[in-house]
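FAQ

Q: What does a record look like?
A: Structure on top, sequence underneath. For example:
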């Protein structure tokens, strides 16, 4: 878990490029947080690993429009079983914290 947390970096969600793309995404995605997540990946030109069903249901159009790949963590063929295990633990811990009203950033 510490390995994952050490590699995370904070991206300010109010950067102009992220806000602009997030605003565009409101036409496609209902949840504004999902818009910010996809917009951040697009602005950074980084692939997105998510388990969000709404994002995955629009994956092809989002990938085509923004030049990113959208994957499930299970799709990551380059990840070792240890990395997948750590990522799964992180996702579950983050979900529990979210339900308790806390955020892991």
């Amino acid at each position: 878990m510490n390995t994952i947390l050490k590699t995370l970096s904070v991206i300010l969600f109010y950067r102009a490029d992220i806000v602009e793309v997030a605003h565009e995404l409101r036409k496609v995605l209902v949840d504004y947080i999902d818009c910010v997540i996809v917009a951040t990946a697009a602005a950074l030109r980084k692939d997105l690993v998510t388990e969000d069903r709404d994002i995955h249901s629009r994956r092809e159009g989002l990938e085509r429009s923004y030049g990113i790949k959208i994957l499930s963590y299970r799709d990551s063929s380059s990840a070792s079983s240890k990395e997948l295990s750590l990522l799964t633990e992180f996702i579950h811990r983050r979900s529990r914290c979210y339900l308790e009203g806390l955020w892991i950033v």
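Q: Is there anything notable about this one?
A: Confidence is low (pLDDT under 50) at residues 95-105.
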